[in-house]
Amino acid sequence: MKLHNSYTNKVEEFIPITENKVKMYVCGPTVYDYAHLGHARCYITWDVLYRYLKFKGYDVTYCRNVTDVDDKILKKAEKEGKTPQEVSSYWYKKFAESMKALNTLQPDVEPFATKTLGEMIALTKELIAKGYAYEVNGDVYFRVKKFDRYGQLSKQPIDALESGARVEVGEQKEDALDFALWKKDEKFGYNSPWGVGRPGWHIECSAMSRKYLGKTIDIHAGGADLIFPHHENEIAQSECANGCKFVNYWLHNGFVTINKEKMSKSLGNFLTIDDLLKNYDANTIRFFILTNHYRMPVEFSDEALQSAASGVKRMLNAGILKDDKTYDITKFEEYNQFVEAMDDDLNTSKALAVMFDLANKSNKGVEGANYVLNQLASALGFVFEKASLSEEELQNVLKSVSEKIGKNYSSMDELIADRKLAREEKNWELADKIRIELDAFNIVLKDSKEGTVWELK
Fold first, then answer.
1. Same structural domain for residues 371 and 396?
2. CATH of the domain at 55
3. Which of 174, 315, 422, 433 reaches 20 to 30 Å from 445, CA-CA?
């Protein structure tokens, strides 16, 4: 298996630190607003990597943090007259609901920044003791120029970084490049050896990664926008504190763009996951994202999502299991083609092409194609199940149709029987009215020699 390492800018053979075990860290959300399509791109991408590593038989520990202490959270709390905890708790719940709706797997470990403050303080103390950090009036800064490899991940020489460095109002740095490990904050802060304050953003991930995965990890992933300064700073503080390599493989996904501009909250051109799910299901959003290579930008458009919906429908119709028979998928050539594609730096577009070949074979009745398609789809996080209604949803449909028709239907069997009677009596008006009312709920009736059944579109 080969992966593109952003640090070396090369596609490299993936060799885990410990045979058959993978330690993987992904930068999680700052919880202060709705998750958007950019977040979907990031977390679906690394969900696929997580699933595929497990599909290959690796024992994976996936850690994804939650930033619940941050300037944006504090500003929102002040604006809304709430505590930072109230804001972060509410928006974390919304984020978790969005991730579940997108069928992303829950990480093995999901630490919160506010629950890991002790580890952040300990790491900061180590950096001060080793001369890599210093305290000024309650703020603690990292000495960037003491780390001679600074800039290697982002491929920026130190002199180029210096020319763009600025000292913000109130900052008392030794050097403009130095970044905050701890910030004085007497209003919303926590106790520390340097007074009341809160952690800088970068120290959070270094502390949480070390606590849950160890000093050196296999994979660290996130969006390309995090390469600098976040990931660059993580490397500096982790390697200076720990005295060893921090990450073996750095992976980054490309942006989602709208009209060739990166989608972001600051630009105001973002689409929330909740809004997307009103028009497209989770399979469609995942298909749209995986059609493109994870390192490339993805241009959002309704046309692209509609095309993805058609692709999903084609696979779904072929992928719904027709029997309970199982097969050894490694005996199928498509399995080997799928693995070859995914082993090539997660070439998901090629993997999807293999799945379409299986869909064609499944539709032609080739034995086992249907089963293999399901197994490979699961490795990418697709759910090939017939859409269904809960009992409560079904009763709401029956109640609505009953009111429109002027009859009382307590079950779909009763409604179907009434439609059948109407057709036998050539009461086409009633039969058509039933069909039209059900169509409003995306329910279709399918007639055959064996009888009539209903299903969701």
1. no
2. 3.40.50.620
3. 315
Cα–Cα dist 438/422, whole Å: 16
What span, in angstroms and rounded, lies between the C-alpha atoms of 105 and 162? 41
pLDDT of residue 171: 79
Position 75 scores a pLDDT of 94
pLDDT of residue 257: 84
Indicate the DSSP class of residue 228. Answer: I
Look-up of token digits 């804001």: 87
| 264 in a structural domain | no
Residue 237, both tokens: 């503080």
Q: Is the peptide bond before 229 cis (omega within 30 degrees of 0)?
A: yes
Q: Are 11 and 4 in contact (CB under 8 A)?
A: yes
What pLDDT does residue 167 have? 73
pTM given for the model: 0.86
Same domain, 359 and 225: no
Per-residue burial over 398-409, b if 16 or more Cβ lie within 10 Å, else e, is beebbeebeeeb
In-domain check, residue 36 = yes
**How many domains in the chain?**
3
pLDDT of 453 reads: 82
16 Cβ contact list (under 8 Å, min separation 6): 22, 23, 58, 218
The pLDDT of residue 457 is 67
Going 429 to 434 to 437 to 441, the CA torsion angle's sign is: negative
Q: Is residue 263 part of a domain?
A: no
Asked whether residue 246 falls in the same domain as residue 323, the answer is no
What number of other Cβ atoms are within 10 A of residue 42's Cβ? 28
**Contact criterion met (CB below 8 Å) for 318 and 363:** yes
- The residue written with tokens 């708790």 in the block is 89
> Which residues does the chain have with pLDDT short of 50?
none
Amino acid at 47: D
Give the pair of three-digit tokens for residue 379: 């490795």
Does 333 share its domain with 442? no
Statement to judge: residues 351 and 433 lie in one domain: no
Q: Please check whether residues 205 and 89 belong to one and the same domain.
A: yes
Q: Is residue 82 within 8 Å of 45, Cβ to Cβ?
A: no
Domain that holds residue 116: 15-257
pLDDT digits (tens, 9 = 90+) for 355-400: 999 999 998 989 999 999 999 999 999 988 766 677 888 899 999 9
Q: Are 434 and 397 in contact (CB under 8 A)?
A: no
Residue 7 domain-assigned (yes or no): no
